[in-house]
Amino acid sequence: MDPERVNSRVWTVRRRSRAGAVAGLVVRRVVLAVPVLLLVSLAVFLLAAASPFDPIHQYYGVRIFDASAADVASVREQLDLDRPVLARFWDWLSGILSGDLGMSRSMRAPVADVLARRLPWTLLLACCGLALAVVFSLVIGTVAAWRQGGWTDRLITAVGHALEGIPPFVVALLAIALFSLGLGWLPVAGLTDAGSSLGPAQVIEHLVLPAAVLGISQSPWLVLHVRQSLLTAFTEDHVTGARARGVRERVVVARHALPTALLPFVTLIGARIPELVTGAVLVEEVFSWPGVASAVVTAARAADYPLLAILTLLATAAVLLGSLLADVAAVLLDPRVSADG
User: Fold this and answer.
1) DSSP at 62
2) Where is the ABC transmembrane type-1 domain (predicted)?
3) End-to-end alpha-carbon separation of the chain, Å?
4) What are the backbone angles phi and psi of residue 245, rounded to the nearest 5°?
5) How far, in Å, CA of 311 to CA of 115, rounded?
């Protein structure tokens, strides 16, 4: 039998087996995500019910001081706030299963409309920030490892460790002070300039600074991880062999060491998704970006159960999805990794 044909068949069988293992991993994770999301949503309702914020005060505002006790009781009944929290949770869950996301009291609009208006801007900011963090970390981390022990490596490592302890909102305020108020290069906040119509040029100009802040605030851990992974890869046999054969150092780093360091890097990106979600909320608040951040704060203060539960579920789903994608990428990139879920 032709050896090439045998090798082709073996490769086909292995590829199909790998695809089946990945499919099984995805199915198991999706099944496990269902009870997790249910428990998270129930916890949101219970915590909101125990919150010191009274939804009635948020609903009335300053008019609460002029409202009679009978009017307050009537509004509380209309908003179903007089019912047990578990009964409200069941009504909300039944509506979710039927496609009704409910009505947001704090936004005075259906939850579906709030998400349709705000979620795309949050996704745009988060995706741009993550892409910038990945590219920046790969480049800077590679340079630091390549120049190990030099002043470049020491500077990058020192800055990376310093940025690890700085919250994203502090980085945002410093960026505004420097690039907006000091140099006047970029707008301070918002999605467009006052009186300007919404357009790609305006959006890009206002996106640059918050996306850069989000990306840089997430980069220190990634940069230091890439550096350490590359230093480990430099000691492996295939890299040592490439150097012994006289391969140029640039080729050794890019084609031999860096691919080995990518697997743990991909896994770390999945683990950083919760920090990305938190960072996006803080950056949106500082830059008045019209995403879900202000909706999260408003819903929490008003104990707005439907909106708060949906936003929390979306954040939880993003974390679970990031972890799943990281594991799938690890299985596909490294045949030694087992897709055991």
Assistant:
1) G
2) 119-326
3) 38
4) -80, 0
5) 9
- The answer for residues whose C-beta is within 8 angstroms of residue 285's C-beta and 6 or more apart is 169, 293, 294, 297
Report which of 327, 311, 338 is spatially closest to residue 32, judged by C-alpha positions: 327
CA distances from 128 to 52, 123, 222 (A): 37, 8, 16
**Using an 8 Å Cβ cutoff, are 132 and 215 in contact?**
yes
Determine how many CB atoms are found less than 10 A away from the CB of residue 129: 26
- Structure token pair of residue 140: 């800077």
Give the whole-angstrom CA distance, residue 191 versus residue 196.
10
Model pTM score: 0.76
Q: Are strands 103-104 and 109-110 parallel, antiparallel or unpaired?
A: antiparallel
**CA–CA gap between residue 139 and residue 203 (Å, rounded):** 27
**Looking at 1-5, 262-266, 326-330, which range is the least confident one?**
1-5
Q: What whole-number distance in Å separates Cα of residue 326 and Cα of residue 268?
A: 8
Give me the amino acid identity at 199: G
Structure tokens at 60: 């009335």
Give domain limits for the chain. Answer: 3-51+101-333
Q: Is the dihedral of CA 139, 328, 42, 126 positive or negative?
A: positive
CATH architecture classification, 3-51+101-333: Orthogonal Bundle (1.10)
Contact in structure between 332 and 56 (CB atoms under 8 Å): no
Q: How far is CA 275 from the centre of its chain?
A: 7
* pLDDT-based confidence at residue 6 (cuts at 50, 70, 90): very low
Q: Each residue of 129-164: pLDDT tens digit?
A: 989 998 998 889 888 888 878 888 889 888 888 888
Q: How many CB atoms lie within 10 A of CB 90?
A: 13
